[in-house]
Specification:
Length: 127
């Protein structure tokens, strides 16, 4: 990805909102993570995953509001305050990446994405 495209895509998800089936989210490391978009009221099985609460921008690209990981997607948000903040910031969808790689791998992905996107509902993380 060339530098200008990367700088511009940093402000919004790299995929258009109209293409809801899958979205690739780049992290600070340059690695891209595949996510599937679902409506906020979707039900999920009890599986480990990373997830992103997002909304569409005015230019119709995804804007991440909250990025997290969980060992049980059916109970994804243990911090209801963060979920409330995401909703107040206009979250319309949850984007999910099922991950069987273990806790350390999910945390690494979460950190990589937060460092790159700096979502407003996440606490800042150090470089």
């Amino acid at each position: 990805m060339n530098l200008i495209k990367r700088l511009l895509s940093r402000r919004h998800g790299t995929e258009n909102v109209e293409d809801l089936s899958s979205v690739n989210w780049p992290g600070q490391s340059g690695k891209e993570y595949p996510y599937q978009a679902y409506p906020l009221d979707a039900s999920f099985q009890s599986v480990p995953a990373n997830y992103i609460y997002a909304k569409p921008s005015e230019s119709n690209y995804w804007v991440p509001l909250y990025i997290a990981q969980t060992r049980n997607l059916s109970q994804r948000l243990e911090d209801s305050e963060k979920q409330g903040r995401a909703m107040q910031n206009g979250a319309t969808h949850i984007l999910v990446h099922i991950s069987n790689g273990g806790h350390a791998e999910r945390c690494s992905e979460e950190r990589d994405l937060i460092l790159y996107w700096k979502p407003p509902c996440n606490d800042p993380v150090g470089d």
